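Last lecture ended with a question: if I hand you only a sequence, what can you say about the shape of the protein? Today we answer it with a concrete record. The protein is LysR family transcriptional regulator. Below, first the input exactly as provided, then the predicted structure, then a couple of comments.
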Amino acid sequence: MDIRILRYFLTVAKEQNFTKAAEQLNITQPTLSRQLSALEDEIGKALFIRGNRSVTLTETGVLLKRRALEILDLEEKMMNELLEKEELIEGTITIGCGEFAAVERLAEICKIYKQKYPMVQISLHTATADSVYDMMNQGLVDIGLFMEPVNTEGLDYIRIPDSDHWVVGMKLDDPLACKEYVTKDDLIDKPLILPTRRNVQSELANWFGKDFNKLHISFISNLGTNAGVMAAHGLGYPVSIEGATKYWREDLLVHRRLYPEIAASTVIAWRRNIPYSLAMNKFIDEINAFKA
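The predicted structure:
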């Protein structure tokens, strides 16, 4: 069955008139009628109910229309994929992110993307969500990974729910290291190292409740790595997300989850309704495919 004839058939089905369809296809009406009559002979069933002024589809015609649309859609996708393979896609994509577990998901996306488009360079910028958000608004960062809460106004994004958990770090010989988890009562009199972000501090304030004002906040730190260094020197207990603890030295620090647990969701976001490069559009496709 010729793809060209399927297009003829779909045009007649759309126009419900052989003459109008022939004009649209830029062929003569007798030629079109002859081609589709041959198709009916090949199938062995009528495809059209022919009236004086218009034609309608038979039950077989309706089925063929559905399958023909699927075939032509598949052909278009195949041709696009073949053309993309021949097309040299290059450029740079800048990704801003913090230190958290969802970076593992980002790595999975990047791995698939680099296999398809090896000429594209990906630039990683590690910073807090506030800094990444500002850089995105300035056009300096294309993709941002944010731990919630974050303002998503003006952004398209996918959410990775409960992708991280809040923990507290301590030295290996600390009494808290013997506990399965750490409660707020365990931390009231401890020198704490809290995240810089105000939104995140608010989350912790909700967790501590009325005792938040009693806390001894020794340091604030924008990223967990340096907070871990301070903790290794006995200067405090960093309250951080679990993903950031991968950057701590296991021979110096351990971590325990807070209880009641605080789960953190992450969003992978990009600015909405702006023109992007082909490389960037392909990366967005990979993000959405990961979501699916």
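Comments.
1. The CA atoms of residues 5 and 186 lie 76 Å apart.
2. The chain has three domains: 3-86, 91-161+266-291, 165-263.
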